[in-house]
Amino acid sequence: MAAYILRRLLLIIPTLLGIMVVNFVLVQFVPGGPIEQVLANIQGQGDAFGGFAGQQGTDAANTELLGPGDSQYIGAQGLPPEFIEQLEREFGFDKPPLERFLNMVWNYARFDFGESYFRSIDVTDLVLEKMPVSISLGLWSTLIAYLVSIPLGIRKAVRDGTSFDTWTSALIIVAYAIPGFLFAILLLVLFAGGSYFQIFPLRGLTSDNWDQLSLLGKIGDYFWHIALPVTASTIAAFATLTLLTKNSFLDEIKKQYVMTARAKGLSERGVLYGHVFRNAMLIIIAGFPAVFIGVFFTGSLIIETIFSLDGLGRLGFEAAVQRDYPVIFGTLYLFGLIGLVVNILSDLMYVIVDPRIDFEKREG
């Protein structure tokens, strides 16, 4: 097992490198980089160069300094070339792309992600600041999905083919087919002051008077705010996990050892929870890390944006809009690393739950 883990860990290096190469190359062809963002803001704010050293005169004089064809940046016409060069140095674009990429690889290998272009804060500190919101959303969604899906899946397996199995399967399929963002908007319209009921808050994770609340008040306020986001992010995982549990139990129920247990006179409950449960739950328990990461990553962007939650998903969205490359690359690197490590943890969970599993023999 140690050799298998070592191979998987070594595979992380080329995988992360590939992720960085692809994203770095794509960014070179995407219009509207950070310098363009700054120039667009300057043009919209009028005269922003009153304090710029050596800059005097009117827009006509500026145009003489920098002709329409002398800059690669749209909207740079009329701005002093010294200012454009200063921006390039500040953002690191005065160096060739290959040198910038190699510097990024070296820095990321040391977990040095630099500083956000527009927030003046270290990317690592920014991620750590936003992470609790996303972890909270993903953790509660995963726990609720497991607590609901496992009993429901077991009941569906026991009553396979009955009317209960039929109508619950129909509900599950409908729930799985509904896009998460559409369900989130539906919850807002129905229960957050849309056209019907004002039961839950519209946005945020806590109320404005959070600091003045008692301990029980803070707990209640937290769950009051997180109810709709967790419900919206749980629905897809809930459907998948329920069907996975049902199919896993059905496969075990049909095996020979179950018939033997029944022949010995054990009750159906004793057979189900004394023999079937442990074997059927292997794949479900072992898959917990992957399910959590799936909810954590795939649902955070849309849900956090709709419910105005200040987490990693919203951070990534805003960074992409602003072309904040250090934040974009830093979060992609961290997410990729976490995802790869979680895949290894999932394999280890299989071995812990069922020691009979040997990945080295399977690879051989």
TrEMBL record:
InterPro entries (UniProt xref): MetI-like, MetI-like_sf
Pfam families: BPD_transp_1
CDD domains assigned to the protein according to its UniProt record, in alphabetical order: TM_PBP2
Any GO CC annotation of this UniProt entry: plasma membrane
Cell compartment(s), UniProt: Cell inner membrane; Cell membrane
Keywords: Cell inner membrane, Cell membrane, Membrane, Transmembrane, Transmembrane helix, Transport
Biological-process GO terms, alphabetical: microcin transport; transmembrane transport
Membrane-crossing residue ranges in chain numbering: 9-30, 133-154, 166-192, 222-245, 282-307, 327-353
Membrane protein topology class: Multi-pass membrane protein
Residue ranges of domain ABC transmembrane type-1 in the record: 131-350
Family from the record: Belongs to the binding-protein-dependent transport system permease family.
Matching PANTHER family: INNER MEMBRANE ABC TRANSPORTER (PTHR30465), INNER MEMBRANE ABC TRANSPORTER PERMEASE PROTEIN YEJB (PTHR30465:SF66)
Protein name as it appears in the record: ABC transporter permease
